[in-house]
Specification:
Oligomer: single chain
Order of helices and strands: EHEEHEHEEHH
Largest sheet: 6 strands, mixed
Radius of gyration: 15 Å
Shape: globular
Number of strands: 6
Helix content: 40-55%
Strand content: 5-15%
Strand order of the largest sheet: 3-2-1-4-5-6
Number of helices: 5
Length: about 150
């Protein structure tokens, strides 16, 4: 199964295309506002409004053999702990070896932003190269999960 933290995910169409080719089910999890797919392999899961409800839903279900697509580092850490393979939308894999550092970096950046309320932006835009890396990483992750 592929679980997608779908509210702000820029690669939903790519997930659907690759999952269909591999015959893998997908659960697009959000608080609402995403268009359901006509593809019978894609299930749209709408969770209640509230902070981190989609994250909680995914973390409670994802485990060994599953792939989770998220840019949310705390969710990624919970899913890695549960045995799932985790990919960020830019194709970066989050694993037991690097998720701790990703959490620490996230916390540090949050503290830096809080210390300077006038700081704007700083994030990189999503590129075609990111999309290509994601497609390659998802192919690899699905082959690995099938083993």
């Amino acid at each position: 199964m592929i679980y997608v933290d779908a509210d702000a995910c820029p690669v939903k169409a790519e997930v659907e295309r690759v999952a269909t080719r591999h015959g893998v089910g997908v659960k697009m999890v959000s608080n609402g506002g995403i268009r359901p797919s006509a593809n019978p392999a894609i299930e749209t899961v709408i969770v209640p409004e509230g902070p981190d409800e989609a994250d909680k839903w995914i973390a409670e279900r994802a485990g060994a053999g599953d792939v989770v697509i998220t840019g949310d580092i705390p969710l990624a850490a919970r899913c890695v702990e549960g045995g799932a393979l985790v990919l960020k939308p830019n194709g970066e894999a989050l694993t037991e070896r690097n998720v701790g550092a990703a959490l620490a970096t996230r916390d540090l950046m949050s503290d830096l932003r809080a210390a300077d309320p006038f700081r704007q932006g700083g994030g990189k835009g999503f590129t075609k190269a990111d999309r290509s890396r994601f497609l390659d990483a998802l192919e690899r992750a699905l082959r690995q999960a099938a083993r």
